[in-house]
Amino acid sequence: VGSAAPTFVNIWRTKQLEYSFRRGLMRSYKNFSICTQNALDYTCNFLQTDLSKYEKNKLLEAYSILPVFDDVEDSLKELRNFKDFKIFAFSNGLFENIKNLLIHANIYNYFDEIVSVDEVKSFKPDPKVYEYFLQKANCVSSQTWLISANPFDVIGAISADLNAIWVKRSEFDIFDPWEIKPTITIKNLTELYNVLKNRRRD
Length: 202
Known about the structure:
Elements: H1 5-26, H2 32-46, H3 53-63, H4 72-79, E1 88-91, H5 95-104, E2 113-116, H6 127-137, E3 145-148, H7 151-159, E4 163-167, E5 184-186, H8 192-201
Parallel strand pairs: 1-2, 3-4, 4-5
Helix pairs in contact: 1-2
């Protein structure tokens, strides 16, 4: 891949999400790992990059244990000070894949539970995915906060009547210019504890 790595990664991620969106709309579910693999194949074909099966498998393995941002663990530690809060990992990925990623990042024990869309056989931002989360977490939408750097996820959550915080990690990140806006926008997770603490006072 070499110097084309940034382009390669960008196309791969874009196609991965596109395939999940399309499968959700078509009601033609394949799990997120399949979407990721299909997107990798597309990217190789598009960029005319001839990767062996072994090389593709190594990329897929690396994707499954991506490192977390530096602010994640400290933020989770702070959130644990809210004794009445429950923290969920809510993802398009498969349960075991999410669990392995959290374990690899040494943050698994901060979460109360993992909720995967796989049981719904659809993907974010399908409304039924967020409805399923509320049922699984046994909580009401008005008291539920989704935290994400993905605008499509924030928009999906708010459309399902959840609160949603957009993590705008870069000044160049753009939120979709829809009529739906984040409940709150933060620059990084170090802001999260105080933001939620202040909201609890309101």
